[in-house]
Every structure is written in structure tokens, then in C-alpha cells.
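FORM 12-B: Structure-to-Sequence Request
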């Protein structure tokens, strides 16, 4: 009996001592054998999804709309006796690229027979990101051509006489447009301009945002639809001016 009791105490002591020891490390795999994947510890790099690239927002594509122009939209620029009736004019609402490198929506009034020309050219200008300062109807300036030019406003129809003439301007027919008139001023044969804010833009060729130069892509785009540039006139130069068939 004493022998049996002593053996029991030895067994109990061995069990209690082994309970507090750390578990033995797993044996290394034999040469030529790989550890099963399921036994490898997971890591953050193995489970993390690749970060998505930041989304980029492209500017909207060029858009344009041609619609009839209501009489009340032309309170100053049209009147009875003008060479073209307002019912033969059209409002072109379209996107243009601004001096702030952002798209904007502007309006031009032109004769209904040239709306395709305008949409064709201004789509090219927009796609080129060629900048335009602003584009409002000249009625925003009470049809005052000087005020519109001083504000660097791109506009088209205005029932007025040609500069220094008693004849109707091509603007009175809705077949002319002035683009960025500050950067592209009317310059007399002596080299002067009536607009103080345009004096530094009287020479050509000249680099600058929104500037039109002889033979550049803006001039060529208008020429392809039959519009001539005032920068090619002899004597006085009208760098802002494009007209259907010239004049």
C-alpha cells in the first residue's frame, strides 16, 4: 500500500509541474517539404486591398443649342429699321473655355444662316481649351459697343453702323463676331487704340492668353467656314473681328 501511494504522488507532481510550461514550438519541416499555407500567420499586407486611384473628373464636352430669340432679349441691340429682322436671328447658347481654365456657358445672337459656322468654330476653340473671357449679349451693356469692348466681352449681333462709316456694320446683319476685344483691339493705321486697357495688345504677333495672331489656328478655323479676320485689313486692324465673307 505504501508503494502504491508513493507512485500516485509522483504522478500528480509531474502533471502539475507540466501544466505551467509553454507549449513546445512546432517542429521544422523536413527538407524538401513546405509548411502548409493554412499554418502560416496572416499578415496585413497579405489581406489588405490595393488602394483605389483617386477619381478624376473630366470637363464636360462641348454643348450648344440654337433657339429663336425673343424680342425682349434684344431691348437695345435691335429696333425697327435694322437690316435684319429679329425673327431672322438666332440665340446660340454654348460652352466656352474661360480665362480661369474652367468651362462656362455663354450666349451669342447671330443670323440664322450662320449658326452652323458658329457652332463648328466654337466647338474647336473649346476642344483646344482656347480661352474666352466672357460671352454675353451686347444688350447687357445697353448695346453700347464701347462699354462691351471695355468689359472684354465677346459678342456678335448689334444693329449699329460700322466704325467710322455711315454704312451698316456686319454686326447689324448678325454675321460678325468680336472675340476677346481687350486682347485683340481695334488699332488705327497710326497704331493707337481707343481703349486704355488694350494699349499693350496693339502689336502683332504677340503671345498671351486669348490673343489672336496672323495665321494661327483661330484664324484658320474661321477661314474654313468662310469668315475673314479683321487683322488682315490694310490700314486699320481689327484683331477681335471676324465676319462672314469679310467686312
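FORM 12-B RESPONSE
SEQUENCE OUT:
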Amino acid at each position: 500500500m505504501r508503494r502504491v501511494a508513493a507512485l500516485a504522488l509522483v504522478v500528480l507532481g509531474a502533471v502539475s509541474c507540466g501544466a505551467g510550461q509553454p507549449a513546445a514550438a512546432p517542429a521544422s519541416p523536413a527538407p524538401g517539404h513546405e509548411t502548409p499555407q493554412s499554418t502560416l500567420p496572416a499578415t496585413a499586407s497579405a489581406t489588405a486591398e490595393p488602394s483605389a486611384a483617386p477619381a478624376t473628373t473630366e470637363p464636360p464636352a462641348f454643348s450648344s443649342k440654337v433657339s429663336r430669340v425673343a424680342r425682349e432679349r434684344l431691348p437695345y441691340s435691335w429696333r425697327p429699321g435694322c437690316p435684319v429682322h429679329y425673327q431672322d436671328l438666332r440665340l446660340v447658347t454654348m460652352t466656352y473655355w474661360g480665362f480661369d481654365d474652367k468651362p462656362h456657358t455663354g450666349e451669342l445672337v447671330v443670323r440664322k444662316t450662320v449658326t452652323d459656322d458658329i457652332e463648328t468654330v466654337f466647338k474647336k476653340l473649346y476642344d483646344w481649351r482656347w480661352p474666352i473671357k466672357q460671352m454675353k449679349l451686347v444688350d447687357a451693356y445697353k448695346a453700347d459697343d464701347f462699354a462691351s469692348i471695355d468689359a472684354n466681352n465677346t459678342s456678335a449681333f448689334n444693329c449699329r453702323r460700322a466704325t467710322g462709316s455711315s454704312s451698316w456694320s456686319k454686326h447689324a446683319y448678325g454675321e460678325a463676331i468680336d472675340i476677346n476685344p481687350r486682347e485683340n483691339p481695334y488699332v488705327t493705321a497710326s497704331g493707337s487704340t481707343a481703349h486704355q486697357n488694350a494699349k499693350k495688345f496693339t502689336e502683332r504677333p504677340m503671345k498671351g492668353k486669348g490673343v489672336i495672331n496672323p495665321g494661327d489656328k483661330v484664324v484658320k478655323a474661321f477661314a474654313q467656314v468662310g469668315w475673314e479676320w479683321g487683322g488682315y485689313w490694310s490700314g486699320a486692324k481689327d484683331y477681335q473681328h471676324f465676319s462672314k465673307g469679310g467686312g
